[in-house]
Design brief:
It is built from five helices and 16 strands. By secondary structure, the protein is an alpha+beta fold. It has two domains: about 110 residues, Rossmann fold; about 140 residues, Tumour Suppressor Smad4 (Sandwich). The radius of gyration is 20 Å and the shape is elongated. It binds NADP nicotinamide-adenine-dinucleotide phosphate (NAP) and manganese (II) ion. Manganese (II) ion binds next to loops.
Length: about 270
């Protein structure tokens, strides 16, 4: 089997990365950065996001696994102390795969039909660099609300524990094929009105965000990457057809990860 390892730049992650590579090569696995079947990220959830985007073109043929060298992560859920066990598991059998939904994002410019296409593992967030963000929100092609405020966030189920959670969104189990829209400080008064609650949309319900004023800078962040856009007609979000595949070597249920990350990681 072909594998590669993406590491965070700190010394602990680097040491673990070189140890893992050595062990895996001792088991006759082949290091291949171009066409890996297994991508191991060593660091945090942020490192995992980078690994995902690096191999985004190979989602069908690649499974991912995350080792954390800081605190427990949602994607990086193996601890360095477990890596010997992990390597034996990787080496000995074809692994089980668990799939999680992704978010499909199309950014359409005003003056052409050529949109930019992205996938997000966590979310897309939209803000303004020039004061209040003003956007029309359409759901399934129908106008839903006119939003004014700091920003909007559209997240995946596995991203629901990240930015979405800080915005008061619900935590969604990744077995649900859905996306969630949350608000950042919407203006609500007698003139302006938004729903105020997070919305959860099923697959095929497209959510579009349309800037009300052209020519203003709009800040679009997809996972860990931010770009400034001008003159876009709409941002189209839907549950993606593609999924991310995790190599699963032991049970670590989602709700247990939620508990251990946010409530307490005592084993009692
Ligand atoms: P970062 O500033 O290091 O990320 C913020 C925190 O989110 C880190 O503790 C990160 O874990 C954690 N995180 C990432 N994905 C997560 C997930 N699916 N569930 C729970 N926690 C998660 O930046 P980053 O590492 O490049 O990560 C980018 C992500 O940060 C974005 O996708 C967004 O979700 C999140 N973010 C959150 C806020 C907020 O909560 N107010 C604001 C901006 C961005 P690690 O330390 O293990 O990397
Ligand atoms: Mn981080």
């Amino acid at each position: 089997m072909r594998f590669c390892i993406l590491s965070r730049e700190d010394s602990k992650s680097k040491v673990i990365t070189s140890r893992m590579r050595q062990y895996l090569e001792d088991f006759a696995l082949v290091y291949d950065k171009e066409e890996p079947e297994l991508v191991i990220s060593v660091g945090g959830d942020g490192t995992f996001l980078e690994a995902f985007h690096t191999y985004r073109h190979r989602l069908k043929d690649t499974a991912f696994i995350g080792v954390h060298t800081g605190h427990l992560g949602f994607y990086a859920d193996w601890v360095p102390e477990e890596i010997e066990k992990l390597i034996i598991e990787i080496a000995k059998k074809p692994f089980e795969v668990v799939e999680y939904p992704l978010l499909d994002i199309k950014i359409h410019p005003v003056d052409s039909n050529e949109y930019q296409h992205f996938l997000a593992l966590n979310e897309v967030s939209v803000k303004s660099t020039e004061g209040t963000l003003a956007m029309d929100v359409h759901i399934k092609g129908v106008h839903f609300e006119r939003f004014r405020g700091d920003g909007l966030c559209v997240s995946t189920p596995s991203g629901s524990t990240a930015y979405n959670k800080a915005l008061g969104g619900a935590i969604l189990h990744p077995s649900l094929n859905a996306l969630q829209v949350t608000e950042m400080a919407s203006i609500n008064n007698r003139v302006y009105r938004t729903i105020g609650s997070p919305l959860i949309l099923p697959k095929h319900h497209v959510c579009e965000l349309l800037p009300i004023y052209q020519g203003r800078n709009i800040l679009i962040t997809i996972d860990h990457q931010t770009e400034v856009y001008k003159n876009i007609s709409r941002i189209e979000c839907r549950v993606a057809n593609e999924k991310i595949r995790f190599a699963r070597f032991r049970a670590f249920p989602f709700w247990k990860r939620v508990h251990d990350s946010f409530i307490s990681d005592e084993r009692s």
